[in-house]
């Protein structure tokens, strides 16, 4: 299991675990992270699983594909290190990753 820490806009920290191969979105939904609504279920079609990675983690993850980059143009307050959590797959190397969650996706 891989530990993932979601940090909500309020500063509340939600610690969760997921299996290698799970998407960060799946872990967030299972942990009840309210700001990750994941309306499209992980199809990279809505942007409601937007999150912000630390610059260090962002640089260590595989680069986003063009469809994710395109969808990120439509999220609220995109950052240079924004990702769609449905497109980030857990690996053992991600143990303890901290992910900022926006206050709202809509």
Question: What gyration radius follows from the Cα positions, in whole Å?
Answer: 12 Å
The CATH architecture: Roll
Number of H/I helices = 3
**What topology, given as strand order, has the largest sheet?**
2-1-5-3-4
Number of domains: 1
Strand content: 15-25%
CATH homologous group name = Beta-grasp domain
Number of strands: 5
Mean pLDDT: 94
**Secondary-structure class:** alpha+beta
Q: Which stretches are low in confidence, meaning pLDDT under 50 for 5 or more residues running?
A: none
Secondary-structure blueprint:
Layout: E1 2-7, E2 13-18, H1 24-31, E3 50-53, H2 55-60, H3 66-72, E4 82-84, E5 97-100
Parallel strand pairs: 1-5
Antiparallel strand pairs: 1-2, 3-4, 3-5
InterPro entries: 2Fe-2S_ferredoxin-like_sf, 2Fe-2S_ferredoxin-type, Adrenodoxin-like, Beta-grasp_dom_sf
Family: Belongs to the adrenodoxin/putidaredoxin family.
Domain 2Fe-2S ferredoxin-type: 1-105
Key terms:
electron transfer activity, Ubiquitin-like (UB roll), 5 strands, iron, metal-binding, 2Fe-2S, single chain, five-stranded mixed sheet, alpha+beta, 106 residues, 20% helix, Adrenodoxin-like
Question: Care to describe what's here?
Answer:
With 106 residues, the chain is of the alpha+beta class. It has one domain: Roll (Ubiquitin-like (UB roll)). The protein is 20% helix and 22% strand. It has 3 helices and 5 strands; from the N terminus they run ββαβααββ. The protein has a 5-stranded mixed beta sheet with strand order 2-1-5-3-4. A hairpin with a 5-residue loop joins strand 1 and strand 2. It is globular, with a radius of gyration of 12 Å.
């Amino acid at each position: 299991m891989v530990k993932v820490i979601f940090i909500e806009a309020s500063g509340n920290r939600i610690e969760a675990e997921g299996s290698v191969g799970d998407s960060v979105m799946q872990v967030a939904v299972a942990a009840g992270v309210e700001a990750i609504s994941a309306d499209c279920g992980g199809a990279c079609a809505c942007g409601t699983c937007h999150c912000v990675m630390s610059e260090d983690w962002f640089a260590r993850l595989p680069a986003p594909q063009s469809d994710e980059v395109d969808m990120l143009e439509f999220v609220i307050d995109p950052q240079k290190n924004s990702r769609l959590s449905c497109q980030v797959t857990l690996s053992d190397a991600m143990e303890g990753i901290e992910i900022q969650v926006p206050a709202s996706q809509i």
